[in-house]
Design brief:
219 residues, alpha/beta, 8 strands, 44% helix, globular
Length: 219
Amino acid sequence: MSVEERLNDVLSRIRDAEDAAGRPKGAASLIAVSKTFEADPIRPVIAAGQRIFGENRVQEAQGKWPALQAETAGIELHLIGPLQSNKAADAVALFDVIETIDREKIARAVAAEIARQDKPVRLYVQVNTGLEPQKAGIDPDETVAFVTLCQETIGIAVEGLMCIPPADENPGPHFALLAKLAERCGLDKLSMGMSGDFETAVQFGATSVRVGSAIFGTR
C-alpha cells in the first residue's frame, strides 16, 4: 500500500468513526505525525492533500519544515513533543500550535515569546492522564487550576487539552477523563488518539487525532 493509500485509509476510518459516534463529518481532523521522517517521505503526503502535521522536536522540525512550507502554502504545524523553555522562541517562530504546555515555566516562556514575536500560536495543555512518571503532562487533578492560571494570570488563551494514554491500558477511560476535564475548563478541543486507538478517540470526542505509523509506516 502506498503512502497515499494509507493516508486515505486513515481518513476513511476517521469518517467511519465519526458516523458510528453520531458526530458530523469533519468533527475530527487528522494530524499526520512526521517525526523522524525526512522531507522526501513527507512530500507525497502533502501532495495527496494533507496539510496538518505534527513533530516531536523543535530542532528536527527546523531542519525540514521551512523548506516544505516554502513549497506548499497552508501547512499547519503542531508541536506534540515536550518543550523546554530555552526552545520557546524557536517553537513559537516555527509552530502554529503547541500542544504540550504542562507547567508554569513553559507557559510563561511561551507567553513572552508570543508577545515578543507578535505571532498568534494556538495552545493546548498536556495532561498526564495515567500519572506516568516518565511522561510529560500535568496531573489531572491540577488541570483546571493550571488552565485558569494560564488564561487569567499568565494571559494566554488555551484552546484545548491533549493526552497520551499509557500504552498498556485501555485508552477509553483516559479519553473520557480528558473530555471531562476539558468540559470543566470550558474548552472544546481535544487532541487524543494515535495510530492504534484513533477510532476510539473519535468516539470519545477527539477534535484532532495524531497518526504517524499508519500513514508513514514503521520508523
